[in-house]
Design brief:
34% strand, 26% helix, Alpha-Beta Plaits, 6-stranded mixed beta sheet, 14 helices, globular, 8-stranded antiparallel beta sheet, GTP-binding, alpha+beta, 595 residues, T_Tr_GTP-bd_dom, 5 domains, Rossmann fold
């Protein structure tokens, strides 16, 4: 056990984690020249296309330092704020973390929030200055930032470059010297923490775990403590580039188990595995529940596919434990799910994965957050969907969730960032200069305001430099109204939203204009209206598309043409009474990108 080192790599997005992981795998000869490719651990098509890590990936390396052979269990984690739940789970399975900072960009928000996650779990932090080969690198300044942040010694910071491979031997040596070996009792009853799971269509569900105490053998009867289900361990092993079977996985190691589990609901991330013969009575603590930040409805385009969508969501949840979903129904779209995501990028990725991996075409409705409504009778209940809000005459007040947002930006962008936050109903709580050029702004603002496009706007006005992190601070009363959208007097509940009274008129006008551009013209006139209760606050009209019915008349008496036009006029009248409007998916998504 004393020769095992479990560590993860944490950093802000694009600071070079995956490239550094590649160099470590090459240096320890875990992968051959033939298997090598850039960002080797990012094995999902989407990850490779977008150049981001979406899932954390575990892999074991064996390497001799001196005469002793060490087992390194490395977990590469995502850097985007939307996938921070992956990071928190990876951290729970490690004793140390490589904190990577880009030498040309310095410390950014995700660096800090991931660092705090690691410190809460008492991990040993090894600071690494990456991208030293870039001409724009500022090693001394960034070293000062790192020392301010974690209070380490200057010589503890390892300069490295994922591209050229500089500093890799020093990193390996630092992991051996500084990261503690896992602590656990090999003689105790088995306790293993599940930190991830994947679905394999041939072998069922494969759970990844870290053994805290005891050991797990092939053929053992195991039990999952939270669900209480029992299985036979058909195969156990460790994670190399592919899964590599072993007869036993010992204390402190990270491994996988295949036990023929078919049901996605039976594996919960954060559950504890123990044996049936010598069960451990208590489960392992230290796993927080996921906090979804953006809520949206996902509906199948064809209502018959509801069950397939449910299966697809369960399989996706195995692979991405941060999705939360529950069934809901809508008058316009039939049955579907209300899903919680960690952010807009996360929502986009989930939608794309459903389409690619499970061949499901889905409609995503406008994102919203949960509110608490108080009625005049004194009842209170949670409103997940704007259409559930009671009638204004029965409504006493509405509370909405507030967040505390930390924004770190360059000093020159303070003005635009502040005006953006104030425009989003934020109030500034604190402003402090971290260095002469970097400012941390702390705001309290309604969560509903950041759900749409806040993050994208923040990136735009700060030329990509501002970084953003937030947590919830509870509910507060707000003056909110429900804005409904009507197409030919029919409400479209997928497009209704709860919005602050002061923004309602503006928002209604913009959304009507946008829908007018996006809805294809029909052979009848379509009126697009935004209303609050019975009061219409904005209207646009989409004029009818006229079919040329007189094209076949050439010459002859004018009355022949008039007869056809009269007939068309009657038909148009009837059409308007029963005409249905088709709304393209782009219209649902356009609401998010109004500006």
């Amino acid at each position: 056990m004393k020769h095992i080192r479990n560590f993860c790599i944490i950093a802000h997005i694009d600071h070079g984690k995956s490239t550094l992981a590649d160099r470590l795998l090459e240096y320890t000869a875990t992968i051959s020249q033939r298997e090598a490719q850039a960002q080797l651990l990012d094995n999902m098509d989407l990850e490779r296309e977008r150049g981001i890590t979406i899932k954390s990936h575990a892999i074991q390396m064996n390497y001799k330092v001196g005469d002793i052979e060490y087992n390194f269990n490395l977990i590469d984690t995502p850097g985007h704020v939307d996938f921070s739940y992956e990071v928190s789970r990876s951290i729970a399975a490690c004793e140390g973390a490589l904190l990577i900072v880009d030498a040309s960009q310095g410390i950014q928000a995700q660096t800090i929030s991931n660092l705090y996650l690691a410190l809460e779990h008492d991990l040993e932090i090894i600071p690494i200055l990456n991208k030293m080969d870039l001409p724009g690198a500022m090693p001394e300044e960034v070293k000062d930032q790192i020392i301010d942040l974690i209070g380490c010694k200057r010589e503890d910071i390892i300069p490295a470059s994922g591209k050229t491979g500089m500093g890799i031997p020093d990193i390996i040596q630092a992991i051996v010297d500084r990261v503690p070996a896992p602590v656990g009792d090999p003689e105790a009853p088995l306790q293993a923490l599940i930190f991830d799971s994947v679905f394999n269509s041939f072998r069922g569900i494969i759970a990844y775990y870290k053994v805290i105490n005891g050991e797990i053998k092939k053929g053992d009867k195991v039990k999952f403590i939270n669900t209480g289900k029992q299985y036979l361990a058909d195969e156990v092993g460790i994670l190399k580039l592919d899964m590599s079977p072993r007869s036993v996985v010992k204390t402190g190691d990270v491994g996988y188990i295949i036990s023929g589990i078919k049901e996605a609901r039976e594996v919960k991330v954060g559950d504890t595995i123990t044996t049936v013969d010598r069960p451990s009575l208590d489960s392992i603590q230290g796993f927080e529940e996921v906090k979804p930040m953006v809520f949206a409805g996902i509906y199948p385009v064809d209502t018959d596919e509801y069950e397939e969508l449910r299966e697809a969501m369960h399989k996706l949840q195995l692979n991405d434990a941060s999705i939360v979903f529950e069934p809901e129904s809508s008058a316009a779209l039939g049955f579907g799910f209300r899903c919680g995501f960690l952010g807009m990028l996360h929502m986009e990725i989930v939608q794309e994965r459903l389409e690619r991996e499970f061949d499901m075409t889905v409609i995503t409705t406008v994102p919203n957050v949960s509110y608490i409504a108080h009625t005049t009778k004194g009842d209170e209940f949670i409103v997940n969907n704007p259409s559930d809000l009671p009638d204004p005459s029965k409504l006493d007040s509405v509370e909405e969730p507030f967040i505390k947002a930390n924004i770190i930006t360059k000093a020159e962008f303070v003005g635009p960032v502040m005006s953006l936050c104030i425009q989003k109903r934020g109030t500034i709580v604190n402003q402090s200069y971290l260095t002469s050029d970097r400012v941390e702004l702390v705001f309290e603002m309604p969560m509903a305001e950041i759900v749409f496009d806040f993050y994208d706007k923040l990136k735009t006005i700060s030329k990509g430099y501002a970084s953003f992190d937030y947590h919830q601070i509870g509910y507060r009363k707000s003056d909110l109204v429900r804005l409904d959208l009507l197409l030919n007097d029919e409400p479209v509940d997928a497009l209704s939203s709860l919005i602050h009274k002061s923004n309602a008129y503006d928002f209604g006008k913009k959304i009507c204009e946008k829908l007018r551009e996006l809805i294809p013209r029909q052979q009848f006139e379509i009126k697009i209206q935004a209303s609050i209760g019975a009061k219409v606050i904005a209207r646009e009209t989409l004029s009818a598309l006229r079919k040329d019915v007189t094209a076949k008349c050439y010459g002859g008496d004018i009355s022949r043409k008039r007869k056809l036009l009269e007939k068309q006029k009657k038909g148009k009248k009837r059409m308007r009474q029963v005409g249905n409007v088709e709304i393209p998916q782009s219209a649902f998504m356009a609401v998010l990108k109004l500006d």
